[in-house]
Design goal:
The chain is an alpha/beta fold and about 375 residues long. It has one domain: Metallo-dependent phosphatases (Purple Acid Phosphatase, chain A, domain 2, 4-Layer Sandwich), CATH 3.60.21.10. The strands form four sheets. The chain has a six-stranded mixed beta sheet. A five-stranded mixed beta sheet has the order 1-5-6-11-12, with no helix packed on it. A two-stranded antiparallel sheet has the order 7-10. Helix 1 links the parallel strand 2 and strand 3. Helix 2 crosses helix 5.
Length: about 375
């Protein structure tokens, strides 16, 4: 049974962004970083994975086998992402259809997903067992790691030892439903609201739908009242300009907030989840970007001490579906010196390009 928050290695570490089943990109990046095929590094560095190892990409089973073998050999650490949590909760969506040949066939037939390797039953069981081992956060004196959102209130609601992430999620969901009822959100009211709008009829059948503030309030509360959702998916609020957008197979009335603009603590936070562009901007059809005008090596946040290491390698599945010749997304690693070492942090991508991070002077 894992501790919810564990200690990060005190030595030099390489923090890998969301992999999303892209085994080839991961192997390229590890080689660029100087690791051999057994995860050993001549400078005794440790690999750290920020979560979302799986889904979307062509080889989720291969990524899990590789990372879990490094983890159990004490050569890597890893935290829980929302995609791992989803699998522990047995929630099936097109991008995790690698868990079943039947789901994979359906996803490919309906044009939701490019072909991917599927896991046999023992592989899936081993993957789920591995996910139950993972903590929600890793910390040391000079850095904090979380998949999506460092939220002290949500972290304080976690037990010190987690017997089952899925059981804890269910408990929080029950508490959330009780709170929603207290606030007047009955099932009848929610069903009526959802039924009055074509939330699940997307382009090209419906180009857009009107914004409904009540639905936006509901979806935001449903997200923000569950600590595990907050920590692995972020905080939500009304969509910008009250313009719903199509994502996740439905029209979204609420969207992710820039929680880092409210983070006031001194210890830096490294996180993933948010599909940060490496250069310029990502495809305009994606969910609204939270990093407009932000350079790849630039710190963000109220105190200029937060850094997103997810550079959208998970976009490649959609690019393969559309048969695009080039990939926009990349897999990145943030290279930190040992704890207490004040040498600069470095960013490296799977194609070998590297940058020193910008100054972290407080704003």
């Amino acid at each position: 049974m894992p501790q919810a928050i564990q200690e990060l290695s005190s030595g030099p570490v390489d923090i890998i962004g969301d992999v999303h089943g892209e085994l080839e990109a991961l192997n390229h990046l590890l080689a660029r970083l100087g690791y051999d095929r057994f995860g050993r590094h001549p400078d005794h560095r440790t690999l750290v994975f920020i979560g979302d190892l799986v889904d979307r990409g062509p080889d989720s089973p291969g990524v899990v086998e590789k990372v879990s073998s490094l983890y159990f050999a004490k050569r890597a650490q890893c935290i829980l992402g929302n995609h791992e949590l989803r699998l522990l909760n047995r929630i099936n969506k097109p991008d995790n259809s690698w868990t079943s040949p039947e789901l994979a066939q359906t996803a490919i037939k309906n044009g939701w997903q490019a072909p991917m390797k599927t896991a046999h039953s023992l592989q899936l069981r081993a993957a789920l067992t591995f996910f139950t081992e993972l903590p929600m956060a890793l910390v040391r004196s000079d850095v904090r790691l979380i998949h999506a959102c460092w939220n002290t209130e949500s972290l304080n609601r976690l037990p010190h030892i987690v017997g089952s992430w899925s059981a804890l999620f269910a408990r929080f969901r029950r508490n959330m439903n009780t709170q929603l009822k207290t606030l007047g959100w009955t099932r009848k009211r929610v069903s009526k609201l959802k039924g009055s709008y074509p939330l699940y009829v997307g382009p090209p059948e419906v180009d857009s739908i009107p914004f409904l503030e009540e639905l936006s309030d509901y979806f935001s509360l449903e997200q923000n009242l569950n600590p595990l959702k907050v920590l692995t998916q972020g905080l939500y609020g009304h969509v910008e300009n009250k313009t719903p957008f199509w994502s996740g197979h439905r029209w979204q009335m609420s969207e992710r907030l820039k929680w880092w603009e409210e983070y006031e603590e001194e210890v830096p936070v490294v996180f993933g989840h948010y599909w940060r562009p490496r250069a310029g901007s990502l495809d305009a059809n994606l969910k609204p970007s939270l990093f407009t005008g932000v350079e790849a090596n630039q710190w963000i946040g109220k105190r200029n001490n937060c850094f997103c290491i997810d550079f959208a390698v998970g976009l490649r599945f959609q690019e393969r579906l559309n048969q695009l010749p080039n990939f926009q997304g990349s897999l990145g690693a943030l290279r930190l010196p040992a704890e207490g070492d004040d040498r600069p942090w470095e960013l490296m991508f799977d194609d070998g390009e590297r940058f020193e991070l910008s100054s972290r002077d407080k704003r």
